Amino acid sequence: MQLSDFPKEIIPYLLPKAGGNLVYRCLNCGEEYPISQFLYTCPRCQGIFMILDKDFDRLKDIPGGLWRKIFDYRKMLNNPSLKGIFLFHEFVAPNVPLEDIVYLGEGHTPIIEANDYMKKLIGCRFYFKYEGLNPSASFKDRGMACALSYVNYLIREMGLEDVLAICASTGDTSASVALYASALRGKVKSAVLLPKGKVTHEQLSQPLGHGASVFEIPGVFDDCMKIVENLADNYQVILLNSKNPWRIKGQESYSYEIAQWFDYDLENKVVIVPIGNAGNITAIISGFINFYKTGIINDLPKIVGVQSNHANPVYLYYLEPDSKRRVFKPVKVRPSCAQAAMIGNPVSMPRVIQLVEEYNDLAKEKKIFVVEVTEQQIMDFMLIANRNGHIVCTQGGESLAGLVNALDKGIVKKDEEVILNATAHMLKFISFQRMYFEDSFPKEYEVRPKEELINEPMLIRPSDISHFPDEKSLSPEEFKEFVEKMSKAIADCLNLKKK
To answer: What pTM value is reported for the model?
Structure first.
């Protein structure tokens, strides 16, 4: 659609110009630093950052109703820079010019309603938002598109060379870093650190295929993260874990898309998200706050974070009802099917603590909750979901298990509509499905298959067939016999009736 075809009052807003006044603000001491440098922790106190737009109030000069029209009309443009998360440019990274935006097809993932069987089984109306349909097959692409667009901008502005992007990962982050860095080949190289033996083969293949330098570390994610942090503190590298606040900015787009999908009406809505390194729930909370403050949405949805009992530090923190008595303590994680959430010391925990308080204050009631699920629930509900028209990963199973437990505790009401976060594509975690069907989970996972959920291929080889195609070339008569008798055997197995 051409610009001249849009309503005249909308045209001036459709192609945003770079602007804003962005700074890093330390959550611990409040010190501010310019964004023209790569910083991840405060030089003064080692606290972590949020990115603050000191000119944010300029966005309030545009009425909420007009913002809705801007985003809805902008969606009709064929400009690649505005096709992804930067449809919401003014809220994501307004300082990045359109020509520097890296777009690989991320964002605008569909929200699919559960079928009638599932709604009856679970007890409410709910949807999955399919983050596995992002380019590297996970939600991480939202933050990476933002961070690498900002890096691309600084490379041009500052004439940077030999830029190395690095991350620690349980799988999805490494795939995303490698993919987006490969799109900037010649400008950016990538290196990833993975905990040896704790990443699926499917996930490991992704950074290797995109040409990253892949290092396997004997330990868990938290150990990899400490090494990456040390590298970022002492060497010229760009850290791309969610400790990097640009990642958070990109992932805020998840909230903006939910708002747009439901025509900006979030009354009676609940968003459920797994908590791993706590970056995603941070971004989701922050995104809804931004839209609420500018009048784009009139209601803040309820948000429920989910953790496995094998990696539950955030859940344990919020068990204490008195905020003044809460003390955050990292936990030693145990093996989890929801590998992306197997983090005992979430980097973004300080962000969560601050934003939860702000969110509840704005809503004038408690709107954010954390629930715990078991590994058995994660696997069972992943399989149940995928038997009913979905493509959810283990983290998506974790979200559905969280909904079940939240309904049981009265946190979610039966008349509320719930959006579940399916963080990645189920094919990344197909090895867990295989272990479930084969009953080969190591004991420490505490997962045992339910007979009704096991599904295995059946070999059909009737004894009354003379020869099979895998033995020799069949004559026309033999092949006819093969087809007819195989068809009858399958029809008998399926209890099919003759026409």
So the answer is: 0.94
Q: How many whole angstroms separate alpha carbon 313 and alpha carbon 370?
A: 11
Element (H, E) at 431: helix 430-438
Q: Can you give the pLDDT at residue 221?
A: 84
Q: Token digits for 188?
A: 């950016």
CB of 184 closer than 8 Å to CB of 177: no
Res 381 pLDDT > 90? yes
Question: Is 311 found in the same domain as 234?
Answer: no
203 in a structural domain: yes
Q: Say which range, 288-297, 448-457, 461-470, has the weakest mean pLDDT.
A: 461-470
**Which residues does residue 271 pair with via DSSP β-bridges, in sequence order?**
303, 419
Q: Which domain does 483 fall in, by range? A: 457-499
CA distance 216 to 233: 21
- Which 8-state DSSP code applies to residue 48? B
User: What does the H/E/C string look like for 437-453?
Assistant: HHCCCCHHHCCCCCHHH
Average pLDDT, the chain: 95
Between CA 234 and CA 492 the distance in angstroms is 68
Q: Is the Cα torsion angle 320, 325, 331, 337 positive or negative in sign?
A: positive
Question: How far apart are the two ends of the chain, measured CA to CA in Å?
Answer: 52
Residue pair 166/232 in contact (Cβ under 8 Å)? The answer is yes
What is the spatial distance between Cα 117 and Cα 112, in angstroms, rounded to a whole number?
A: 14
Closest CA to 169 of 108, 210, 128: 210
Q: Answer yes or no: do 231 and 306 share one domain.
A: no
Do 224 and 257 fall into the same domain?
no
